[in-house]
Automatic annotation (TrEMBL):
InterPro entries: BUG, Bug_dom1
Record keyword Signal present: yes
Signal peptide residues on this chain, from the entry's feature table: 1-21
SUPFAM superfamilies on file: Periplasmic binding protein-like II (SSF53850)
Organism: Salipiger bermudensis (strain DSM 26914 / JCM 13377 / KCTC 12554 / HTCC2601)
Coiled-coil parts of chain: none
Descriptive protein name: TRAP-T family transporter, periplasmic binding protein
Family per similarity comment: Belongs to the UPF0065 (bug) family.
Keywords linked to the UniProt accession: Signal
Length: 319
């Protein structure tokens, strides 16, 4: 009698879990983007939302912009939301990995549920107009004797972290020059006011085609199609890679069935051909990583960032 009752209870529990998975979502899923409308994180998430509604019939995904605090305000809203799966966040490197190290936010990486990564923004080091170097080797030689001015899109941001971390790995010196956004850094680079900058492949491609920048190396394991003649730091003997990333996150505490459904959804979206083509045309590097791999990437980036920020005297500066 007990055995029969136990088996019946187990079957009922499994059926209930399956029902939960099938029933989700029953209303629109909201995704908080921690930046203003029109940026790459916002635009890519809107492509995710379109794919979500196309792939999952009768399902709705609403993108809500909540900028401020370097991405901390919107990220906080997602991380501290009710854990029912209906309020999620656009997971970005700056607010999740770098901001908690600098301080001034109310969450830590342990508070984040990593659902899945769907894209990365690659980074290229480029020589600016009139720079005293034009390829990787001459850049390293110059930086061994001098400290080239390397522009970035903001103090303590991902571009400064990547440039400083590379310099440490390559045992060279640089002088980081922060600007108010990548467009200002790009203008200074084209004008020859700095020696180099960290750029996206799309930025580097258009400027190099116009003779305004020269790509030096790509921060990937392997060369990329956009710059087949540009080496990686890895092939030059420096074990360094870095990219910004975009994924879906949520609060801790979601039930397992809902979390599994969401993780499967990110995988279906990231491997959908139409989605991949659209995002690739936007200059993104479509990459799927499940929640575990996504979290591992974030934790690696946090340790890299911690070392750089500590060296710069920026660790915990806003606490």
């Amino acid at each position: 009698m007990f055995k029969t009752t136990f088996i019946g209870a187990a079957v009922a529990a499994i059926a209930a879990t399956g029902a939960l998975a099938q029933d989700f979502p029953q209303r629109p899923v909201q995704v908080v983007v921690p930046y203003s409308a029109g940026g790459s994180t916002d635009l890519s998430m809107r492509v995710v939302a379109d794919a979500f509604e196309r792939i999952f019939d009768d399902s709705t995904m609403v993108v809500r912009n909540q900028p401020g605090g370097g991405g901390a305000i919107g990220s906080s809203a997602a991380v501290n939301a009710r854990a029912d799966g209906y309020t999620l966040g656009a997971g970005a490197q700056g607010p999740l990995v770098i901001k908690p190290l600098i301080g001034g936010n109310d969450y830590q990486l342990d508070d984040v549920e990593f659902i899945g990564l769907y894209a990365r923004s690659l980074q290229v080091m480029v020589a600016c107009a009139d720079a005293p170097f034009s390829d990787y080797d001459s850049f390293i030689d110059y930086a061994g004797e001098n400290a080239p001015q390397v522009g970035n899109s903001g103090a303590g941001g991902a571009n400064q972290i990547s440039a400083e971390a590379f310099a440490a790995a390559a045992d060279i010196s640089i002088e980081s020059v922060p600007f108010n956004g990548s467009s200002e850094a790009r203008t200074a680079c084209i004008g020859g006011h700095i020696d180099a900058m960290v750029a996206s492949p799309a930025e580097a491609k258009s400027a190099s085609d116009a003779g305004q920048m020269t790509p030096l190396f790509v921060m990937e394991d392997e060369r990329i199609d956009l710059f087949p003649d540009t080496p990686t730091a890895v092939e030059k003997g420096v074990d360094f890679t870095w990219s910004s990333w975009k994924g879906l996150i949520g609060p801790k505490g979601m039930d397992e069935a809902t979390l599994t459904w969401l993780r499967d959804a990110v995988e279906q979206i990231a491997t959908d051909e139409q989605f991949r083509e659209t995002l690739t045309d936007m200059g993104e590097f479509v990459t799927f990583e499940d929640g575990e791999a996504f979290e591992a990437r974030a934790r690696r980036d946090m340790e890299t960032s911690r070392t750089v920020l500590e060296n710069l005297g920026m660790l915990g500066m806003n606490n």
